[in-house]
Every structure is written in structure tokens, then in C-alpha cells.
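Board notes, transcribed. Complex of a protein with 3-hydroxybutanoyl-coenzyme A.
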Amino acid sequence: MPSMTKVRYEVRGRVALATIDGPPVNALGAEVRAGLADAVERANKDAGVTALVVAAEGKAFIAGADISEFGKPPVAPSLPDLLDAIAGSSKPVVAAIQGVALGGGLEVALACHGRVALTGAKLGLPEIKLGLIPGAGGTQRLPRLIGAAKAFPMMLSGEPVSAGQALEYGLLDEVVSENVVAVASQLAETLAATGAGRTAADRLTEADREAFEALAAEALKKAEGAPNVPALVEAVRSVFSLPFAEGLAVERRLFLELVADERSKALRHVFFAEREVAKLPGIGPEVKPREILSAAVIGAGTMGGGIAMCFANAGIPVTLIETAQAPLDNGMNRIAAIYDISVQRGSLTPEARAQRLKRITPAVGLTAAAKADIVIEAAFEEMGVKQSIFTGLDKVAKPGAILASNTSYLDIPTIAAATGRPQDVLGMHFFSPANVMKLLEVVRTKEVADDVVVTAVALGRRLGKVPVVVGNGFGFVGNRMLEQRTRATERLLVAGALPHEIDAALTGFGFKMGPCAMADLAGNDIGWRSRKARGLKASVADAICEAGWFGQKTGRGYYLYPQGARAGQRDPEVEALIARISAEKGVTRRSFTSEEILARLLDPMVNEGARILEAGIAARPGDIDIVWINGYNWPAWRGGPMFWADSVGLDVIAKRLEALAAETGDKALEPAPLLQRLAAERKGFGSLKG
Ligand code: 3HC
């Protein structure tokens, strides 16, 4: 029997008060459930008590079921049993809600006989975001209380509503700006005296059913294979056709099926990985960020302009610096044009556009960076260029200013060595388009001061990014693994697969685009230039570039793009060229199934991920997953490459890599020592946590 220290029970006058105190967010773990069940029982047994109020300490009323308990052996009392006890209590129970009431937290409130919330409270059923549906009566109680046409969209989007909105919906009885517990106690006493409110108001009219069915049809059309949307529709639909208890049983069955589904497991993994990534190894909470009131960005190209927009969008004044007026004007025009598109689409008001543009001050010459609290260099990707900029910045930047490079590959300590202040220099690697993509790799060198890292992470969040702290090393985390996929693509093309087959394997997996379509979009010349600079060759990719087929911008690449089409069409010439290259290499082309293609693309990435972990370039496997989900469109419901590898089994991946290494004679494809060790121990990367 768990102890009940997370719920305090006291009696104030004739009303009992159960206060949940389970930081950080009062999740409904076993202790909280037991404490609440005990409170209901005590209040019902105590002749001097007429009603019970459930309240909570801290920033949340209740953040929901304890997600970390999912998939583990159940501990009594279950949440449904607890809610049965609350709903069936002979003395009325009223929820006093402050902060967020989410998921199971809102379901607790729904099982109560009355609900009072503090202004600023937020109420929602976000289970959909975890690949689930509400599993403790939410799909049955909320539609009965506010109508299915209002309840269904709340559950479908997972977005919380404000207290005011909830009051309007009839979800809440009252909203108060203070004394929520006292007001809830009054309501509880009134309910006890009048017996009112014991059964939920029934909003289930025929008109409501029709409105719900219309919304459901639309949602199902958009669901694209997400298993929880049909489940949600089925559960909500049953409120119109089944008695309450049977509806609850339908909901429970669907919920438990979804909890066991790999897709929900992956999304739950992502939930925790997103929170873990914020914890910086070796840096305690005593390290505070430096103040960032203004910024400068060096280079008004696509990346620099995008980064400047991030600052402007976040309300931080930024100076955009170029070497000459013409490229500066081009850069500013490009930014204005991007904002114009947002205005045309209606996602930005003309006033906001003007304000944002006003926050960007164009300037020629590095001296304009003198006053900035942070300078981000986004100039040409060449060490000499970067070093000369940092030498210049060292002369003009104010003491304590943070100097960051947006390099995708280059060595940050070498860049830092161009200054006399390596403790203030780090990498901040944005992803293109910088104003859109969420990922920010914060590259931590051995020399950089802890508070600089903390500042870069805090700033990243202010800019709306997902910052991931990574170690210094060629390509850091994301691009280093991407390179493995690019090489794998080339290997597959030579061995017998065609571009559309490779892309289809990845889109079938859940990516929005495969590697060939992606290369065509980004421009094949980028990789070509980088390979030439490093003395590397890729027969197919090089031949395509030598033919001038740089991708969408030239109307052809791996695919044909007639008349500016965005979706590529198979190109017989490219396919013949690939076949010729195979023949030249003496390769007899063979066909590959989607599964084989997938394994050949993803296994080498996982192997590289293992090496990245061995080298300490990423702190945790989950960090790598967050990088790939936020920077490379890895489908979140696949959990990221390291989570995926665990779900396949590392022993399976290790064997496949051994076979691939033997087939190609490429020793680099042999399983990394970490992968080998975990595979031998029959463990996953997930076992490395904590
Ligand atoms: N279960 C377990 N742990 C949880 C949790 C939950 N439901 N919600 C938050 N936490 C943990 C986080 O992992 C984090 O732990 P850490 O400090 O060890 O990393 C800590 O609480 C604080 O969380 P955040 O960093 O996210 O804090 P914020 O203040 O930014 O946000 C929040 C607070 C809005 C409550 C946010 O945490 C959140 O959205 N939580 C999840 C809400 C949710 O999805 N609830 C539904 C759960 S499923 C359910 O209820 C099923 C039911 O229908 C049966």
C-alpha cells in the first residue's frame, strides 16, 4: 500500500479538504490516487462532514495520469476506480482548480459534482498528442457536460481552453480571481444542501450528434493512419448509443489498446526526451544566463536572414551585417518578401510585419556588432572566412558578448582560437529555413564558459527553438548522421535501387520526403561542393551534378520538374545514367524491398549515433532522437532513430550491419563497440538513461 503523503486531508467546518501536493505537476501517480481515494472514503465516513473539496498546491491542479506509469504493472486504486468513487460519493465533491487541469486531471474534475477555477487556469485533454485518447471517462463525461460538438474538438486538438472559455462552455460552474478553495467549499455546501448538480447536465441532443458527426467525418479524413483519431470518434460516438457504463468500457478498451501501441510508446518517449534534453550535464541551476537585450547577425544570406528573423519575431532588436550594401539590400528584400507571404496568408498582420522589420537594422561592416550582447556569424562555410570574421569580432565586440558561429560542420575551437576569448565562443547551428525549423544545435566546446552555454539554450527557447547541446565534432549530431544516410543512398543507387524506390521507402516510413527528393529541393550542388572540398566522391550524385542537374532550381535532378513542378517525376535519363554507373563498377543490379532499403538507410545512421554517444557528442540517446525529429522531420510517432533502433532490436541491427560491412568491404559499417556491447547484452539504447 503506497503512503499517502502526497494528499493532505483536513476538515474545515463542515467541508473536508483534500489537497494534492505532488510536485512538480501533481501527476496522478499511485500515491496521489491512493490519497484521493482515502479522502473520499474518510469524508463519506465522517458524520460531521457534508462535502469534499479537491484542491492542489503548486503550478498545476493535476497534469494528468503519470505518464511514466504507462505500460507498467497497474497499482491499485486505478484511475477509473478512483473516479467511480468520486462520482459515486454520497457527499458532493467539488474541484478547486488552479493552474492546469490536463488529461486525467481534468477527468478528476469532470467526475466531481462541481468545478470552480481560478482565472488563468487552463483545462484540456491532451492525450491525443501522446497517441492516446482520454482513458478515465473524459470521452464520456465531457460530451455529456458540454455537448459532443464542443467536447470533440477539445479532445481532437489536445489544446487546453482558458477558464473563461470553459465557463462559457458550461465545463466550469464558476471562475474566481482568488480564494478558489473557499468558493469551492461554498459550492460544495450548497450542493450538499440542495442535492443539485449530482448528475451531469445532458447536452446530448440530435443537433449535437449531427454536428459531432460532421466534425468526426472531417477528422477521420485528415487522420492519415493515426490510430487514435478513429478510436476517439468511436468513444465519443458511443455517448449517443450506449449507456454511460458501457461507453466507459468502450473508452477503456480503446485506451488500453492505444497505450500498448508502438506509436504511443514512441510519442511518450519523445515527451520525456524533450524534457530531458533541457538538462545540461555538469551545469547546475546556480549557473544563470547572461542578459540578451540585443543581437547581431553576420551575413545576410538565406541562413543569416532567417536567424535575424528569429530575433525580430521574438521581439529582440538585431543588427544584420554584411560586407557591402548590395548583398545587404538583397538580404533585407528577401526578409521583407517572406514576411509579405505571411501577411498574404493571413498569419501576420501588416502592423506586426512592420514592427518586425523595424527590429532589424541593416548595417555594413563588423563595427556595427559592437553593442550586441550576442553575435551570430552566418557567413560562408569556409574556415578562413570564419576565422577572419572572429578575429574582427574580437576587436569590436563588447566584453562578455557571446560570439556564436552558425557553422554546420566546421571545428568550433579553431574558430574560437581566432579570438582572445574562447570562453565566450560556441556554435549555434540553426536549420534551414532558420525562421521555421525548430532545431538548434548548441555546440559546447571544452573552453566555453558554462553560463554561455546556458545563455545560448535560454535564448534558443526564447526564439521558439528546441535547443540541444552537442559536443564539437564534424557535422555535430544531425549532419554527421545525415551523411551516413546520404552515403547509404548512393550505395543503394549503385546496387540496384532507383530514386523513387528509395524515397518511397522513407515516405512509407513516415518522412515527408526521401533523400533524393530532399537533395533536389536543397540543391545537389551543395553536397557536390562539400564533397569536392573534402576530396570525396559519390559516383551517381557527382554525375548528376556534372550534367548540371542541380535539382528543382534547374528543373531536373534525381527527378524531372517540368514547368517548375514541385513533385518530381521519374527521369529515364537519370535511371539510365545510374544503370551505366553500376555497369562500369561491375555491379549486377538487383531489386530491393522497401524493408531492405529502410534498413540500409537507417542502420548506418544508428551506428553513427552509437559512435556519437561513445564520443560524448550527444549526452543521451534521447537527445539524438530530438535532433532528428526537430531538424530532419523524423516522424515523432517513430520516436527518433535511437528509439526506432531499440524497437527493432540492437542485435538485429548489429547483424544487418555486419552483413552490410562484409558485402561492401567497408569496415566503417561494422557495428560500433557500444552497439555491439548493447546487442550482446540484449539491451537497448534506452538502458543508457540515468
Ligand atoms: N506524468 C508524468 N510526469 C509528468 C507529467 C505527467 N503527466 N507531466 C509533466 N511531467 C513531468 C515532466 O516530465 C517534468 O519532469 P522533469 O522535471 O523530471 O523533467 C516535470 O513534470 C515538469 O514538466 P515540464 O517540464 O513539462 O513543465 P512545464 O511547466 O513546462 O509544463 C505541463 C507543465 C503543462 C503540465 C506539461 O508538463 C504537460 O503538458 N504535461 C503533460 C500533460 C499531459 O499530457 N497529460 C495527459 C497525460 S495522459 C492521461 O492523463 C491519460 C488519462 O486520460 C487516463
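Residues 498-584 form a domain with the N-(1-d-carboxylethyl)-l-norvaline Dehydrogenase; domain 2 fold (CATH 1.10.1040.50). The chain is about 50% helix and 10% strand.
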